[in-house]
Amino acid sequence: MRKNIHDDIERILISEEEVDAIARRLADQINRDYADSSRDLVLVCLLKGSIMFTAQLMRYINMPVEVEFMKVSSYGSGTQTSGIINVQLDIKRTDLGNVDVIIVEDIVDSGRTLTKLMALFKEKGVSSVKTCSMLDKPSRRVVEFKPDYCGTEIPDLFVVGFGLDYAERYRNLPYVGVLKPAVYEKAVKRNI
Ligand code: PRP
């Protein structure tokens, strides 16, 4: 029998209701900030982690909005910000001249991904680019970075759920929870 993923969670860090409140609050800010713009508003959902948060956020945006998907991986060392960003899946829209972009993330960790993506979108010539993240782990920062719209700061815990994974699992949890150490300790022992 398949196991119940909730059993692998030590405790809930951010409940479904809290995630929903975060999405509403950030969408309200976006609704206010972009109310007077005549440009197309494009949310860029960074796969895979931000699928659930993007979906939750866009439900509360009350103006026309497009959604694009992007998958990147980012490498770097030390404080190097100009490291490699590997675009595995790019957005489909090519006409970016008259566009306000908001990149949506599940979590900011080292800060590398969003720092590099901001630079990439500026190179593409978008009118404006901002970032929106459900979670922020400032204690893990390697490069200086602050998301424009930030849900909540969290300590350096092993969190999964609401899009965040461990070994590609647990993304479907409807809350953000702390993974039981036994789960990843067992995996390390098995070398997976
Ligand atoms: C995670 C997360 C962010 C990024 C944050 O993605 O979803 O995109 O790392 O890290 P950074 O601030 O150190 O750059 P991951 O590469 O694990 O891919 P996933 O979204 O498919 O899980």
Task: Outline the fold blueprint.
Blueprint: E1 9-14, H1 16-33, E2 40-47, H2 51-58, E3 66-74, E4 85-89, E5 99-108, H3 112-124, E6 128-136, E7 149-153, E8 159-160, E9 176-179, H4 181-190
Parallel strand pairs: 2-3, 2-5, 5-6, 6-7
Antiparallel strand pairs: 1-9, 3-4, 8-9
This protein binds 1-O-pyrophosphono-5-O-phosphono-alpha-D-ribofuranose.
1-O-pyrophosphono-5-O-phosphono-alpha-D-ribofuranose binds at residues 46-49, 73-74, 105-113, 165.
Helices, by number, come to 4
Instruction: List all distinct small molecules, including ions and cofactors, that are bound in this structure.
Output: 1-O-pyrophosphono-5-O-phosphono-alpha-D-ribofuranose
Beta-strand content = 25-35%
Strand order of the largest sheet: 4-3-2-5-6-7
Give the name of the CATH architecture.
Answer: 3-Layer(aba) Sandwich
Number of strands: 9
Keywords:
single chain, Rossmann fold, three-stranded antiparallel sheet, binds 1-O-pyrophosphono-5-O-phosphono-alpha-D-ribofuranose, 192 residues, alpha/beta
Please provide a written account of the structure.
Helices cover 26% and strands 30% of the residues. By secondary structure, it is α/β, with parallel strands linked by helices. It has a single domain, classed as Rossmann fold, CATH 3.40.50.2020. A six-stranded mixed sheet has the order 4-3-2-5-6-7. A three-stranded antiparallel sheet has the order 1-9-8. α2 links the parallel β2 and β3. It is globular. The site of 1-O-pyrophosphono-5-O-phosphono-alpha-D-ribofuranose has 16 residues, from β2, β3, β5 and α3.
